[in-house]
Amino acid sequence: MANELSRTKYISLILILGALTALGPFSIDMYLPGFPAIGKDLGVDPARVALSLSSFFIGISAGQLLYGPLLDRFGRKKPLCIGLALYIISSIGCMYATSLNSLIILRFIQAIGSCAAAVAAVAMVRDLFPVSENAKVFALLMLVVGTSPMIAPTAGSYITSAFSWHTVFLVLGLMGALMLIASIRWLPDSYKPDTTLSLKPRPIINNFLAVVGEPQFYTYTFAGAVAFSGLFAYVSASPQVFMDIYKVSDKTYGWIFAFLSIGLIGSSQVNSQLLKRFSSQQIVPVALVGQSITGLIFIICAWNNWLSLAGTITLLFIYLCCLGCINPNTSALSLAPFTRNAGSASSLMGAIQMGIGALASSVVSLFNTHTATPMAITMCGTSLLALLILLVCRRNIKTAVAATKEAVPVH
Q1: Does this UniProt record's set of keywords contain Coiled coil (predicted)?
Q2: Fewer CB atoms near the end CB (10 Å): N or C, the chain?
């Protein structure tokens, strides 16, 4: 279908789908500089504010399992619009949160709404573009998504300084409203609703079991999700590491966060060029080895208190560069075997990714050692585990599967 799209239509689709995918990351990153202010207003330690981040990750994980069947049963646009409406309402609710518990609950609901955008966007990539282009399209989406950690924390720090952390959630609500308008007006109906799909629990569970039973899916989904959870550990711990340990201001933290995101964005675009010479199956293990080595160096340096601010930034930058070459390829390889159940497959992939990410985020939040060691251990551990999963499980993939060959051809 991509060949039938004009260049203008192609670019507009990428921008809208990228913006939908970026809504969740914006919701995560924009309020990070406000952690100290939120903690002060709600009367809790800033480190405990990270629990509202963990609840957001849990909400996204649970919500994706909800939206997958709905997207296949009712088409893409109707569940997407309902999710965006829920996101807008809960964002306004977060503005008026008066306790940490209420903020945690509202962030969970906000996540339920935002994940409709992410699941629909991923499923529509599979609907609108040939399987052979999926990895490249995901890399382009990452380019759009990658602007969120560049813009969101910096914008959030200035909004918090000029107004308050409450205003951040007003801005997020307005962003959700713009996405709702764009989705209604410009997104095509990319998928004919499958009225044969049942929404009863048993058929839904059986459908998910069929998806997860595909060797290519579980190999690359779990390897990719565990590797990606290192990013969640970094995001959760970074406010404490930079603003508490290294004593940088909220504005400086925003700029550091923006700089580090360049590694994720830039490497995802380098990945697009690498795909001209190598397959995704070749790129993933090399990137995982690089990520694991970086994690091991990070642990050694953090444990021995050898890390300066510049050293920490450098290691995180390299780690994120490796991740930028892992995520687009594992996503494309995970979804390649599916056509009819692409919505369920994308939602299950996202749920696994966010669920494991929430676990990594929670683990880091439990420690308050005033060092970067918990972050380093978590990030290294996820990388090593992801590499192990890939090496053990990929032997179950049948190399003759046509979908695999079509997904990422060697040029």
Answers
A1: no
A2: C
